[in-house]
Design brief:
Layout: H1 4-8, E1 17-22, E2 28-33, H2 62-74, H3 80-85, H4 98-103
Antiparallel strand pairs: 1-2
């Protein structure tokens, strides 16, 4: 969901496609498609309506590192040292929790 502020000043329109580059060292690239722009109040934050998969794991080594982790995870052979680096538990890259994603911006709100 994109604030209508951006569409008002002509930056985004419905049906626009965006490519977002993140962490140039790892080379992450995300493609977004603006389906609908609707009015929001200043209190509303953008939110995720649909998602597929877990997403990236920070500092895993880019696309190649994530692919290697995915293959290892699918085979049940994640390196124990790597599991420690992940916090002790493997991450299922096929799972996504939209509620968790939408709660993230609230962790940055000023009180």
């Amino acid at each position: 969901l994109i604030s209508n502020f951006f569409s008002t000043i002509g930056l985004l329109n419905e049906k626009d496609n965006l490519t977002i580059h993140y962490d140039y060292g790892d080379g992450w690239e995300f493609k977004l498609h603006v389906q609908k722009i609707q009015p929001v109040t200043n209190e509303e934050l953008p939110y995720v309506q649909k998602a597929r998969g877990y997403g990236i794991i920070e500092d895993i080594g880019g696309v190649g590192g994530l692919e290697q982790y995915y293959d290892d995870y699918q085979q049940g052979q994640v390196d124990p040292e790597f599991l420690d680096w992940l916090g002790g538990e493997a991450i299922d890259l096929n799972a996504v929790d939209i509620d968790e994603l939408n709660d993230l911006p609230h962790t940055f709100e000023h009180k």
